[in-house]
Amino acid sequence: MGIVITVTSGKGGVGKSTTTANLAVGLANLGQKVVAIDFDIGLRNLDMILGLENRIVYDVVDVMEGRCNLAQALINDKKSKSLYFLPASQTKDKDILNKEKVKALIETLKESFDIVMLDSPAGIESGFEHSIFLADRALIVSTPDVSSVRDADRVIGIIDAKSERAKNGQEVEKHIIINRIKPEMVEAGNMLSVEDVLSILALPLIGIVPDDEDIITSTNTGTPIVTKEKSLSAEAYRNIARRILGEEVEFLDIKSKKGFLSTLKGIFK
Fold this sequence. Notes:
This protein is of the alpha/beta class.
C-alpha cells in the first residue's frame, strides 16, 4: 500500500508545482512507482512542467464523474516509465471535487503506486482541503519571506485540524522545504535565514533549494531540472527525494556557487 504525500504552501507563487514535478521525477528515478496528481482545478500547470500537456485527453474530474476509467486518464512520463501523471481539469470549477470521490480515487491509486504525490492548489479553499485530507505526509514549501512563512504557518494549523489523520487522533508527518533562497540577501539581512524560517514554523527541514534561473528554463521546456547533472538546485531536489525515502543526506552548502557539500547538523533528523 502506497503513501500519500501532499506538497502545499497556502501561498501561490512559491514553487509548489515545480517542487512536486521535480520530486516526483526524483523519486521515480530512485525506483519508486509514483503518480503525481494536479489538484489545481481550473489553473493546472503541473502538466507543462512535466512536458506532458499535449498528451492530456482526460483529467481527474473525468475519472471521478465516470466519463473514463483511471487507466485512460493516467499519463506515463516520457522518460521515467515508473512515473505517471493525472491532470487537473482546466475547464471545471474548483468546487466540483467531492470528498468521497476523491477518497475513493486516492485509495485506488495507493493500491498500485508506492507514492501518490498531490500538488495542492494555492489558497485554503476546497481544492486545498481535498489535497491535505488524506495526506500521510506533507511537504510545506515556503520562500524565505515573512508573507510566505506566515501562510505556511496557517497551513500547518489546518493540516493538524482537518486531515483525516487528525480526525483519527493521529498526526500527518510534516517537513519544510525552503525554496528560492538567496544567500547574498540573507547575509545582507534582506531575506529570512534558514534558522529564522525553522524557528517560526517549528518543523524539521527536509530541503533547501537555492534561487536558480535555470528552473525557469526547465519549466518552459517541460524538462524538470532534477534531471540535469550539473545544477545546484537539481542536486537539492535529488537529495530531498532521497531524504523522503529515509536516507541521511548532507545538506548542500548554498553559500558557495560551486555547491560543495557541508553538514547542517541538528536541523534534519
